[in-house]
C-alpha cells in the first residue's frame, strides 16, 4: 500500500511539475512582489528604521521569505481549482490510484516551486548586501523551518482550491497571509508599536518564526522562540491537513 501511494504520488507530482515548468512566469511572479517589497523597504524606509547593529536587509529578509511563501501557495489553490473544473479529479477516481496522492502531488509541487522562489529572493538579497556568518547547521535549521511553514500554508491553500467557485475566490485566501508579516516583528521591532497592536504582533505565529530565522542567520541565541515557531507550524499543518482531507472527501463523494 505504501509503495502504491509513493509511486502514484511521484507520477502525479511529475505531472504537476511539468505544468509549472511550462509556465515559469508563475515562479517569477511569485518572486517579483517580495523582491519589490525588499527593494522598497531597504532603500526607501530602511534608513528611518532603527534595528541596532543589524543591517536592515538582514533584519527584514526573514519576513520577506515568509511573504514569498504566502504568495507562492496561492498558485496551489489555483492549480487545484483548475483541475477540479477540468474534470481531472473525476478521471483520476476511475483509475487505480491512491486518492490522497492527488493532493500530495500538488503539495509537493508547491514545495518545489516555493524553494526555487526562495532561492531567487535570497540571491537578490545577497546582491543588496545581505550577509550571514551562520554555519551549515543554522542554515539547515532555517531551511527546515521554511519547508515546514511552506507545507503548513500549502495545506491551507488546498482547502480553497477544493471549495472555491472561482479563480478569484481560490486566490483570495492568500491576502491575509501576505499581510500578516506586516503586523509582526518582520519589518520593525514590536517595541515601537502601540499597546494592543504590540500584544497581537508578539503573540501571532509570524513573529516567532521571523525571530527564530533572524537569530539563526545573525548567530544570536535563539531561546524559546524556536519551540514556539515549531509549535505554530506543526499545529497549523495538522489542522489544515485535517480540514483539507474533509474538504476532499466531501468534494469527491
Describe the structure.
With 253 residues, the chain is mainly alpha-helical. The chain has one domain. The protein has helices at 2-22, 25-45, 56-85, 88-93, 100-127, 136-163, 167-172, 174-179, 195-202, 205-217, 225-252. The longest helix is centred in the first third of the chain and has 30 residues, at 56-85. The radius of gyration is 19 Å and the shape is elongated. The two termini are 22 Å apart.
State the main characteristics:
ABC2_TM_bact-type, elongated, Nod_factor_ABC_transporter, mainly alpha, ABC2_TM, 253 residues, 11 helices
Task: Indicate the radius of gyration in whole angstroms.
Answer: 19 Å
Helix content: over 70%
The pLDDT mean sits at 85
Q: Encode the helix/strand succession as letters.
A: HHHHHHHHHHH
- Beta-strand content estimate: under 5%
Which geometry do the CA atoms define?
A: elongated
Spans with pLDDT under 50 lasting ≥5 residues? Answer: none
> What composes the largest sheet?
none
Count, helices: 11
Structural class: mainly alpha
Protein name: Transport permease protein
Keywords: Antibiotic resistance, Cell membrane, Membrane, Transmembrane, Transmembrane helix, Transport
InterPro entries: ABC2_TM, ABC2_TM_bact-type, ABC_2_transport, Nod_factor_ABC_transporter
Transmembrane segments: 27-49, 61-81, 102-130, 136-158, 170-188, 226-248
Amino acid at each position: 500500500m505504501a509503495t502504491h501511494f509513493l509511486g502514484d504520488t511521484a507520477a502525479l507530482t511529475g505531472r504537476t511539475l511539468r505544468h509549472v515548468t511550462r509556465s515559469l512566469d508563475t515562479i517569477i511572479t511569485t518572486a517579483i512582489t517580495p523582491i519589490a517589497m525588499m527593494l522598497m523597504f531597504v532603500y526607501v524606509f530602511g534608513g528611518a528604521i532603527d534595528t541596532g547593529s543589524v543591517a536592515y536587509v538582514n533584519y527584514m529578509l526573514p519576513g520577506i521569505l515568509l511573504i514569498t511563501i504566502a504568495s507562492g501557495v496561492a498558485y496551489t489553490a489555483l492549480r487545484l481549482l483548475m483541475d477540479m473544473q477540468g474534470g481531472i479529479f473525476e478521471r483520476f477516481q476511475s483509475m487505480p490510484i491512491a486518492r490522497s496522492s492527488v493532493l500530495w502531488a500538488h503539495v509537493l509541487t508547491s514545495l518545489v516551486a516555493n524553494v526555487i522562489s526562495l532561492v531567487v529572493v535570497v540571491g537578490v538579497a545577497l546582491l543588496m548586501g545581505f550577509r550571514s556568518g551562520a554555519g551549515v547547521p543554522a542554515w539547515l535549521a532555517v531551511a527546515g523551518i521554511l519547508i515546514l511553514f511552506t507545507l503548513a500554508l500549502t495545506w491551507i491553500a488546498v482547502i480553497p482550491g477544493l471549495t472555491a467557485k472561482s479563480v478569484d475566490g481560490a486566490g483570495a485566501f492568500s491576502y491575509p497571509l501576505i499581510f500578516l508579516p506586516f503586523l509582526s516583528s518582520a519589518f520593525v521591532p514590536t517595541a515601537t508599536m502601540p499597546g494592543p497592536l504590540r500584544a497581537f504582533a508578539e503573540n501571532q505565529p509570524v513573529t516567532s518564526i521571523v525571530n527564530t530565522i533572524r537569530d539563526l542567520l545573525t548567530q544570536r541565541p535563539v531561546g524559546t522562540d524556536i519551540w514556539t515557531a515549531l509549535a505554530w507550524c506543526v499545529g497549523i499543518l495538522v489542522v489544515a491537513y485535517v480540514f483539507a482531507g474533509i474538504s476532499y472527501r466531501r468534494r469527491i463523494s
